[in-house]
Specification:
- There is one protein chain.
- The chain contains 20 helices and 21 strands.
- The chain has 590 residues and is of the alpha+beta class.
- The chain has 2 domains: 265 residues, 3-Layer(aba) Sandwich (Rossmann fold), CATH 3.40.50; 201 residues, no CATH class.
- The chain has a 6-stranded mixed sheet with strand order 3-2-1-4-6-5, sandwiched between helices. Strands 7-10-14-13-16-20 form a 6-stranded antiparallel sheet, with no helix packed on it. It has a 6-stranded antiparallel sheet with strand order 11-8-9-15-12-21.
- A hairpin with a 5-residue loop joins strand 8 and strand 9.
- The longest helix is centred in the first third of the chain and has 19 residues.
- The two termini are 52 Å apart.
Amino acid sequence: MLTNLIRSSLKRNFVRFTSTSNVALPFLYDLEPKCRSCGIRLQNKDETKPGYYHLRSKQEKEQQKLESSPKTAYEKYMAKLSPEDKELLLGNIFTGAPANHTPKSGPSVKELAKRAYDIKLDETAIECARCRNAKVHSDYKLSQEEFPIHDLNAIMPKIPSDSPIVYVFSGNDFPMGINADIFKYRNPDEVYFIMTKADNLFKKSDAARNFCFTFLTDYFRIKYQVPAKNIYITSAKEGWNSIDLLNFIPESAYIVGNVNSGKSTLIKSLMLHQELENKRDLESDIPFHIKAREKKKFIDRFNQKVGPGISYLPGFTREFLPVTLGGVRSVFDVPGFASDPYIHEFYHRFSDGKTIARLTGGKQTYKFGTYKSKYDSVKGPQVLGLGGIGYLQLPQDSMYQIRNVTNIDYHVFSNIERAVKVSINPSDSLKKKFIIEHDEASLVNFERYVIPPFYGQIELVLENIGYIHIKPVGAKKTNELMVLYLPRGITGMIRQPIVEYIQKTFKDSWEQNLIKGKRGGKGNLVLKRYKGDTPYASILIPATGKITDATGENQSDFDQLNAMTAAKRPYNDKTVINEENKYEYWIEPR
């Protein structure tokens, strides 16, 4: 009763303070126990409700300690040995050491390594049943109750009005992860932006990192008036420049961003960096091969047992979760924003969590997305089957070079009718090509989009998955628009090739990439700069029609495009797209 009285009293006294103060007092969050992985308030009364955890008795805890103790393990394995094996082991006859040999005193190298990489767990840090089942047993139910996802406008009002905001977004699908509504709650110079997953764009030491920073600072300054000092690029997975990143993040900052943007991974990466720094002195006398092995074990245990939970499942973080970085700095892991209201419906169709993890891990642009990368030639009316995640229908009498910068093993179908037929009843050899399986009922619910007219190369971006690089080749014979079918819950857009903004390339007068050895004296080394006079990206145009009844929709596609754009001239069969008007029918995201 006394605890409840203190708790309610503190809440009443500090609620007004925390609504305006940029120091959100992490100890207030400790008044009620929270899950260390997702931040939900814990309860042990009803296992059907959120936040349930199994309250272990003292006897259970002691039994677990007993069962995991080295002495118990030793006795357990000794009991399995035959008398002869025990004699061999205890007699130590393999060492060849003299009987009167006195071993050195003090701990062995292995013992030193284990001490150095020991994890001291906070016994008050409890994990709820949902988080434990999802992480350990891959047992989860994707629902709004268990994995809640909210709109940015529902989350931001809950954050103290003058607290610093750090906005995390993924490099592979930029600028899709940026929601301009953030500036309804903060001025542009009050939001700090971190591009994570940058290891998918370039190598750490690559000059492209500097070029990418130039591109981002240009983009955010021109489009949103965000100063360059508020931009940072990193890879949480690889732990790039952790010290500088720690200094970049303000005290008491709230870490926000879309689901699966890498917020929790970023926070845990900084926590891990600090732990490893603290162990430098302890590991100095340990041989490298032992140190490497024990360090890897430590990192695996740390990621599993310490700090916020990391998961590929959207909506894993459920409440604000206070975390201490560097021993002194407090930040808050915030639930991810919804990019699509049907996102649970989309991810629920995956057969297992490992597939989601592999798919959302991304693929390296510097290996698969440059003009030197391998490509496939595809011609209309062929259809690119994206593992059941989407279907890209190419216009009649057209040809394209396709570079795949996703972990989807796509398949090329002869036409859309064939794609539908095979998707409903795939042969044994094609089943492995489908990440998501379909029947006719699920295909009927696919949404149809037309891709705005373009001139030159573009990239078709799928949120959290990656992108397809598309380059037209040969003479253009039709104004038919490219069509994309997607299930509900996933967002797509097109953009200019990002590699042209983060890597210098050789170009001739027609803006075509040239391989260095074949320049013929015409090429120039060019790094594109974002100037804001043309759109960098465009949304897709929602259109009518079903994938299961894909009859000619040209005129209605034209009408829908013209209705949504502010183009000076309506798009039709006679429209000529060239260098001067190639972005006229693009609709730039806010």
